[in-house]
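Researcher: Going back to the complex we discussed earlier. I've cleaned up the inputs and rechecked each line, so this should be the final set. Can you rerun the prediction on the complete assembly and write out the structure?
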Amino acid sequence: MSKEKKQQAVQTTGHAWDGDLQEFNNPLPTWWLWAFYGTVIFAIVYWVLFPAWPVGKSYTKGVLNDITYTTPAGKQVTSHWNTRALYLEEMEKARAEHAAYMEQLQSASLAEIANNEELSAFAYSMAKVLFADDCAACHQAGANGVIGSYPNLLDDDWLWGGTYDQIHASIANGHNGFMPAFSKTLNSAQMDDVAEYVISLSGSDVNPQKAEIGSNIFNGETGGCYYCHDKGGVGRISQGAANLTDSIWTIADVPGQATLEGKKAVVKRVIANGVNRKMPAWKNRLNDTEVKILTFYVHELGGGN
Amino acid sequence: MSDPIYQPRVPIFPRSVKGRFRNIKFTILVLAYGTYFLLPWLRWDRPSGPDQAVLFDLVGRRFYLFDLVVYAQDIFWLAGVLVIFTLLLFFVTGLAGRVWCGYFCFQTLWTDVFMLVERWVQGDRNARIKLAKSPWTAGKLARMGSTWGLWLLVSLLTGLSFTLYWGNAPQLLVDMLHGEAPFAAYATTAFLAATTFVMAGLAREQVCTYMCPYARFQSVMFDRDTSIVAYDEVRGEREQGRRKPAKGLMNYQERINSGVGDCIDCGYCVQVCPVGIDIRNGLQYQCISCALCIDACNTIMASINYPVGLIRYSSENELEGKQTHRLNLKNLGYALVLIVTTGLLVWSILTRSAFELNVRQIRQPLSVTLSDGRIQNRYEIKINNKTDRQYRFRLTLEGLEHAELDTGNFRDIVLLPEHTIQINAKIRMQPEYATARREAFRFVLQALDSGHVEPVSHESMFYVPTVSLK
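Model: Rerun complete. Updated structure for the full complex:
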């Protein structure tokens, strides 16, 4: 059939406006029509199977009543299809899959976890999530902390000790990190001298006379710094007092200062104002296994002792 | 009603034939079906892993092919296999024409089986034509019904066998019969059964003529030396054309003397053709080179004592009385590329690494300063043992002389067969040894107590904070 003939064959609806305005009556393509019928059938099947129509304050639930999960209260619930129930069901399945490992973790000691490749890999990835949820807000996602506020957990310096037991105690019971302010006890010149001495402990070139005076204040009764920081400033774990002789600074940002004056200034500020920081206890918020694997994770991060 | 888009199918009722090529085709059919249906049941002894010889384990992301285990990361071999198949198709087509279509293609094989079923239930060509024309009686319904029923059975077995390659066959079959198999197993079986039924039962030659791209682009690969199934027109027609045997044209010598061709126009070659063409019209794109017309013509020629080979494997050059050059430049080129590609694939498979090393540097933070002033970087290392043996590995550094590597409690890493492990490594170095903010180095993984395994390495970076650089 030629093209012209086909065009002539097209019908109109029969109406005419303004004398000559007509409307073509082109039928829908068959495949299109069947696809449309298909969607209608699909919709009806969908209404039957899934939640669909609002009815007053409720809605039709659909006949797919096949999602079973356990509520936190321990009740078995079978629900119509909905994404929230689906999520709860999937989470329950995941917990069931974890259960075998969790049981092992529960009974294993930290040393046993560390020596078992599979168990330690599982504990590590579980704890990573816990850390991100509960610890990262202060200690940062990578556990590198914030200098001046929250300790860096990646380095090998442990204010409160780096053995499994010490880390476990820190997480379970929390800590109050406290250093008194010395602005009332010492005058500005004395604080300068102490700062000079403290800087010298980690190997900076300072004025030896001033450092000598600072040493006497630090290790004597004038300042009494050695009560917590110990003689020579090596720190005392029972007090959470920092070791001042190493390269790590958690409060005063000494490595970040370019000049000696700058370094002394940040140290002096800490001496003057003191430190008061608090880590909450986690034993009431996390269960024993969670505290245990977090201990393993933190120990793993910094290398531990 | 508008014009139909497609030409309606003209039903074809191929007649049975006996002969050399029919026997070859039956032999290939038996071998192909035997392989396809029995391979999932073949057991294979492996030190670890499933005991099925050929198993495509999608969940475990492993393909087991006898002694070869293909991992997800080796999937580029599939590309190699496809390239080789393509080249092989080009090469064989250039040399011998549509050998694949005529003898090996599953469309041809399955259509052949469906036609056998048809013939067995309904009788040969004439009986089938008669049945098709007859009105719908109970007898016709029973015959057509049983044909379709048997087709459906073959289709279901085909779909089922395909599915069995993707799981432990005996267990999967039991699960499927109990309704406990995964949905995908049923869906795959149903889908493949449906396509088999439609393609081999209903669409048949239309698949080759309209759907298969190969039928359409083969003309590019053909030349005048390509082997084709051809009717020898010079001999078949002579000066006077083909003629039915009549008085004075019966015996071979009489026909030559009177200038009449050897073709007695019996039509057998047309009746046996599964795609419904007349080979005497010359080379046609529908022809799948199944060679059944050769068997048909030879049967007739032999029965009337004429020389056989009026229809035979030939080439356009040969039909014109010229020399056929099989080994022309094009075919030699295909052969060369084919050999090189196959060699590369085999080399790649034979030299595959037994284990794999992946390193991800922990980037938050990149580095940390330790109490003694050293810089520490941390890395998450994944080791994948792709063998069926247990290995003991040692991880070392290459390119960071003054650095110390700490892998915690796992100095030597023991990895079970086909297992992956993740370990956390720390590298520590005094900053004065660093020359730049980033130092490139390599992790080297060496399998202990097995000297024949090549060590694998992975490049990584060691970062030093700017303030620590002297």
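Model: Worth noting: Residues 138-164 of chain B form the longest helix (27 residues).
Researcher: Good, that matches what I expected from the previous run.
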